[in-house]
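Title: Comparing notes on inverse folding

I've been comparing how different people in this forum approach sequence design from structure. To keep things fair, I'm posting one structure and asking everyone to reply with a full sequence. Here's the target:
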């Protein structure tokens, strides 16, 4: 991961990473192949062929891997709620300075 913060908020405090609905997933692995940020880890010999191993590597507000999924098996947190949470953390940090 290249960034440790987003808009002045530590990345690990921002809940933004893919959620996979494995009941829809056909394991085409297009999302894994598409993502250049090492978010996923492949487990070829397991029933669940991949996992979100590095959620904090996911670029905040990026949803590109989900757009590669023809099965709509990938979702993300609500963008408006995440934005509000980031603004709240920034406000709190500014008040504590």
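Reply #1:
Here's my take.
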């Amino acid at each position: 991961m290249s960034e440790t913060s987003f808009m002045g908020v530590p990345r690990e405090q921002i809940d933004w990473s893919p959620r996979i609905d494995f009941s829809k997933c056909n394991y085409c692995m297009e999302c894994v192949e598409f993502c250049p940020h090492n978010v996923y880890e492949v487990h070829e010999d397991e029933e669940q062929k991949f996992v979100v191993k590095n959620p904090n590597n996911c670029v905040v507000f990026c949803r590109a891997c989900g757009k590669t999924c023809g099965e709509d098996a990938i979702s993300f947190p609500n963008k408006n709620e995440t934005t509000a949470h980031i603004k709240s953390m920034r406000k709190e940090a500014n008040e504590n300075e």
